[in-house]
Batch of 4 targets.
Target 1
Amino acid sequence: MPDTFEHMIEDIYTLEPTLREQDAEVRALVSSLVSAKPVVAVDDTFVQSLRRELLTKVVPAPKAIPSPWMMYLAPLGAMAVLILMLIPGYLSHNTVELPTAAPEIMNTELQMDADDGAADMNMKQRSADVAPEGASMMMAPGEESDEAFVGDMLIVSDQVEGRVVEVATVTLTAPGFVVVQADTEGVPGAVLGVSPMLFAETVDLVEIPLTSALKRGQTYFVSLYHDDGDGVFVIETDFPVFDVYSGAQLMFMFGVYDAMPQ
Amino acid sequence: MEDESSYVTKCQAGDTVAFGVLYDYYIDKIYRFVYYKTFVKEVAEDITSDVFHKALVKINSFDSSKGVFSAWLYRIARNAVIDYYRSQKFDVPLEDVFEVGAEDRTPESIDALSGLAKVTEYLETLNAKQREIITLRVWEEMSYQEIAAIVGGTEDSVKMAFSRGIRDLREKCGDVSPLTVFLACGSVAESLRFIDFT
């Protein structure tokens, strides 16, 4: 405890150097807070009763843990299947002669197919323009993805002073925005910056320009919002994203230094 | 907790004995965490029970690559407290329900009461996040890293919030002598009830 107490005091003075001049009062204050810690006695009857209740509860189906052997055999099996799939194609390529000239009618059909193919390519290109490469597809009902489901996620570190917030990683399950807000008495306040609309994807290094510069020693909030469909961020109508595990709004607090912390 | 990840993995495989080990380690901590936000035994017990039931049901959704088990469990507890007060339909901003039920508060509704302490007034003036961080650091002796994982923030932003909270508290205490603050703090456990939300 004394070690923790001294660490607390030093941490306070590191970030609030002026308090060092009031060392006696600060130590008394922190000491008083420590001493005021409520003595909480957990009712043992409650503890044991809850324990019995929990351990007799039917739990959900367990996650399957693959055996070590499966971890080695599965890739080998996959390779074998792949080889078996490729062999017929390889054999047919080497033994069957393809026609060198096609009948006129067939040429026309091929031309039409090629045109269709080009049209398809154009559509795909337009899709690529709208949804950047790597964007995960929105799931239609009943569709499955080969990718494991990843909920919305946000990774951000402390920032340096400036007019840009750099978010390390953003994962959105629907089109939306990354929003930076001022810390107003411990809760998100004024919106200082909003990312361009992002699509349902994982993006690294999202830069968010701010209307006012980050200040050293201040804390800020960054959060995710799903777009309500109009492509424009409006805090009153867009949907705040919630953490799938805790149910709390997905929000992160970060600090600002004049140089990157060690 | 030593070998915590192995117990969690066993839980996820359906090993209830492993869940019992985790329960035994965390029951006191979670109960205290909830109690510091409610200060009513029956409410704390109800919420704590809810927390562990949810943890058991959701154990397969815990992903160790996204964080540590303790932070996950504390976030469930934090949200359970929020849900409880929302279910009570308190007509106050949820960011800070420090005064929830204050008018209806009677000596019988609180576990131990002996008059409001001066420090209660001081802590009331802090914002909800500062109060929560100070409580977790000073009373639960959690590291800044642990607190950050629970409240959602970087370790250094939590340090800043803690330091600023102490600074604000010091300013508001004014010329109160250390002895006065000590005596006032001595009754905070008996009369203080604050519920912190973001």
Target 2
Amino acid sequence: MKFNNEMTLTVKALSQNEAFARSVASAFFAQLNPTVEQLEDFKTAVSEAVTNSVVHAYEKSGGTIELWAGLTDNAIYIKIKDRGVGIDDVSKAMQPFLTTGQERSGMGFTVMQAFTDKLEVESAKGYTCVSMVKYANVEN
Amino acid sequence: MQISYFEDEKKVVVKIVGELDESASNVAKQELDYILNSTNKKALVFDMARMSFMDSTGIGVLIGRYKIAKKLGIALYVKNLSKTVDKLFYMSGLYEIMTKLENDNEI
């Protein structure tokens, strides 16, 4: 795949970086002139992936989250990676309402799926990578 | 994120301003629980006109508050959602536990 533009961002896996990371990713997507709704949907999907890494990946040890994004003529490709504990059973984790508790909704992957055009999750011990694609149609 | 509220004769109206995400969730839970536990109204309206962002962490916060409201006999309503947050509400079943208002005259 050839991209017209690319960006990378590495942040510490901290709650206060969730807004920063999703804002950077959606500002980059804005270059394709998506509709307001497409932009907000994408921002929400990125927030879900980043929040998963903050909440689940590192327990107390801490770590970083890496975002990479590439733009084609009409879509953004994004990868959100952490080097945390990994997800034991990805297909199980992706079921709606499966939650680790603490009043979490268990809707994270469901939202990512609904709000993007393609979602892939790869995970092993010490590694999780969420890849998403979102198309932009110029507002008429 | 900031939360403010006011009461009229029938209801308490809660305005959520800013971004309701994971980093704001603990403060949101505490403040909403305080409002629920201190009001004597039987209806609470969430006004989201100035909520600039919400993700599934916000869904978790609202489902948790519903459980408390139900015990207290307080009905929940919501108004002024963005298109994206409206979709989140449908997707997660939140409209089964709170009613969308087009205007305040409905309650």
Target 3
Amino acid sequence: MTALAALIRRDIRIAVRVGGGALIGVLFFLTVTVLMPFAIGPDLALLTRLGPAILWFGALLASLLTLDRLFTADHEDGSLDLIVMGRAPLELACAAKALAHWLAAGLPLIVATPVLGLLLNLDATATAAVALTLLVGTPALTFTGMIGAALAVTLHRGGLLLAVLVLPLSIPVLIFGVAASQAAITGPLSFGTPFSILCALSLVSLVVGPFAAAASLRHGLD
Amino acid sequence: MSLGPHASFIVTSYALVAAIVLILIGWIAIDYRRQKERLRELEASGVTRRSGRQATDI
Amino acid sequence: MTLIDLANPTKFLSLTARVLPWLTGATAIFLLVGFYQAAMAPDDYQQGATAKIMFVHVPNAWLAMFVWGVMSVAALGTLVWRHPLADVAAKAATPIGAAFTFLALVTGSLWGRPMWGTYWEWDARMTSVLILFLMYLGLMALWRAVDDPSRAARAAAVLTLVGALNLPIIKFSVDWWNTLHQPAAVLRMGGTSLDKAFLIPLLVMAVGFSLLFVTLHLAAMRNEILRRRVRSLQMMQASQQAA
């Protein structure tokens, strides 16, 4: 347990120090959201309607882009080999790394959501709904994305290949995340149904992600 | 047999299926020939398999 | 001959050489008979002759999913049993599966144009198949991105299995998303029961296309084994020249 706690602490510390990439994710999220009105026009009513979708899309891309480095940096300095050979089960180590990554790169996105909601003319309920669905949904994005990150490090490829492999897997999360936010804002559907399914998706990815990532690391590293 | 007002759609879809399947067959056949060719070249240049069998053996 | 015997590529190749002509013949017979029966099938009372597209659309759609299943079994073979043929089977199946998925999409689209008045409808089934197609393409990109075949095989195996777990979830999500956005059901074949006049040609075509897949898959696996033989010989040549 202490090994995993130490791993989480170490990863967070690396992510937030100079040279760590955690806060760039938020900056990217902000930039994408700011760019959106230039593409669709400064029509506030339209922006309100599209707001949850824009925020979800920005968060999806931001969490995907920061995932690229999840295992690569550790692979470069050799610590990934130590983690794979360590006594802690690799599945749990992967889960710990993903958790640390989510705390460092996922949580700031949710904190930034209210500010971006203002830019998109979302009212308090809508912003709260989007923030809540992001809080529940981004772990699923991180944990499924981790599979792609593990594949990327074993293949020595990253970037676009990772995105192409991971994005189709995140479609369910996107569907239910946006649907739950829309349900809270406009109805007529109840917020509970899509939100519970979103929670279920997150829990499934919490189980599947570490196992798949650990399998790919175990079979792929040499 | 008449194909009705949408004959072009029916013919196009059957033709497309045939075309793609033929492309697949052609690709696999050409690939087979190319690999055989390469094995023969390697054999001729004096490289032998560890088992000592002919490279082009099946 | 057991599965263990097949682990020897040479034995597999000799078996393939014996079986392939028979498979090719059976495929040709089934497809020709199926095509004849499809041409002779009566018109659907609602869709007219357009329903004939079904006879090529449905087998391709079924194969699109079946091939992913074959690749998942091969992926288990790669990761669990390290069966030497499993890598080859998975790699050979991917482009064939992608081709069938593409055909399912295009024939579906050509069927949709006269029926719905548009080539593309964000219909639940078509959307799921489109996502399946994207995943096939991603898998092909992965195979192409790495030049070491066994490394690529293990990565592809993980991705195939994750995809197999995810595909039902994606299907469910897309269905749900679709009912949310399009309450009006799109026109489709009336009821669940197909008339015999349609069912028999459809089954013959399905068997024919499945045989086609098996034939192409075996031939592609043979190519892949030869390609690996070329690769290892080239490496030996390079090391001999270096020495």
Target 4
Amino acid sequence: MKRKIALLLVFVLMFATFAAGCAVEKVDNEEKQESSNSQDSDVIKIGVFEPLTGPNAAGGALEKEGIELAKELYPEVLGKKIEVVYVDNKSDKVEAANAATKLIDQEKVSVIIGSWGSGFSISAGEVIKKSERKVPAIGTSCTNPLVTKNNDYYFRVAFVDPFQGKVMANYAYKEVGAKKVAFIIEKTNDYAVGLAKFFEDTYKELTGDENAVVYRAYYQTGDQDFTAQLGNIKESGAEAIFAPGNFTESALIMKQAKELGIELPILGGDTWETPEVIEIAGEAAEGVVFSTFFDVNAELTDTTTEFLEAYKAKYNKEPAAVTALAFDAYLLALDAIKRANSTDPEAIRDALEATKDFPGAAGVVNFDENGDAVKAAVIKTIKDGKFTYLTTVEPN
Amino acid sequence: MALQTILQHLVNGISLGSLYALLAIGYTMVYGILRLINFAHGDIFMLGTYIAFYSMTAFFLPWWISFLIAIIVTCIFGIVLERAAYRPLRDSPRISVMISAIGASFLIENLAIVVFGGRPKAFPIPTIFSKILNIGGVSIVSVSIFIPIITAIALFILNYLVNNTKIGMAMRAVSKDYEAARLMGINVNNIISFTFGTGSILAAIGGVMWGLKYPQLIPLMGLMPGLKCFIAAVVGGIGNIRGAVLGGFILGLGEILIVAFSPTLSGYRDAFAFVLLIVILLVKPSGLLGQNTTEKV
């Protein structure tokens, strides 16, 4: 009997391993045909790597919309046609590195754009930094500081998590008036862990209280039950909850918090701006507050107006913040090529570094020494089942 | 920790444990009769939830009809699965059937990704299940009260079915000795189909309840609950229905309490189930309520 059950156990473990692997591996898809290998000198190639399949496909699709729209509006630069080469990173870090290699060595692109998800950008960044043929990259909505840190070839049009954490800590302290907060963090996500740390640093400074964070709860990606963590938060004496993490888990947290009778304000980060949050959390999502990149109601630049009109005409819906960022990344690439007056990647890199007051749809872009955009954050809430603009926070 | 908080954790644990128990019974029943771990059980559970979801959102049926449809369709699916994937291998070595079960599980999961899409869907919750009650400082959502009650009713019916009916007697006979049961004129194939149908009904009930409690549907949602409930069945003593219920409750309460009392361990809540499995296999391999039978085959 013992042996039999031991054998059984082996099968369970094997099964778990296979199953976990299978969760990442998804159907291959369309994008391939768009990449032709023509070495036409009348064509400038821009490479894009995005999660077009897999668990983050929704994010990749939103950014692809922005790039396609920008290409329709600006199909040429320096009198040459632009060809956009899409490579699917399959929501996988290893695939993201492969995608970068393919864009650099096979497709010989002049500049790279991508990606949704900091993890994919970080692993592609290693390839970009180390490959022999140096090609600059422009990050879209990846916000983790490690994407551009120590990498002279990676820039990004989004703000970084230390700023986002600071913005939300300020909001919790000044607007909500909370003197004590509790965290519930997606432990297996670099983005969430980083954001919580940056929030905590600022918040402790603001309150002058070393113990301002009264409770820290953790969960894993894919968890569905948070009642135990929330039950303790309810008792902890916190006046607000900061819950950085993936949108699906966060939606369940909002719902279960309400079911446990927790009336505290719940704060989060830019990942929450997906329709699924409202669908899954329903009424419980009302009143949650998060920071993001862009809103149609925030006064930004002339490009914003152009983007909004073109987007409405093409897709007939409200654009997401990440779509605007991808739109900006494409325009910035064009702008750099124009200023460099060359298709040489090195010249484009230098032009990117020299970017000053670039008017993007999601705000004016200026790079700091790491190549991160220094720009305003938008704070939004959910009201009557809709994302609603609250305020804009300028960088300082 | 205040008394209310402890009570709150217990309520949460019991409601999660009841869900696990419903699923664990399905594993245990199939194992009891076929000596087969039905790895696709978690995916049948997922299908049940999706069927209820589409009945409500695509066909705009009232919730109770949708739930009924989910139960019936899932039951049929379970029977078809047994016919397609397990019956042709009835006389093959047990290992072949197990591999077939794993294959069936992958097939269903990946088909679900293609058909339903990978983006999470929100399960619509009828108001009767989403009322929030406050009893002496303990906050309970009404579905958490329904779940243990429905589990208890299902268990009672199942118990009656197995112990007091003719078909139940046949099931017990098949589980004791497959060949002898056949010699006594029992239609073994029908009994096995019936067992799969019953197990799938329980999986569908569990799936619908799960959807009401955690209204986020993804094609791989059956994976983790499936593995955990299999463990619950082993812990209770595989093949023993009461053991499966006990195992489900131990697992549900254990998970909640471990996170509640030790926040630093909350990332390891899934590990709890697997550690429990290892411990039980070392200490009492036949499970808490399992009998120490001698190897037949």
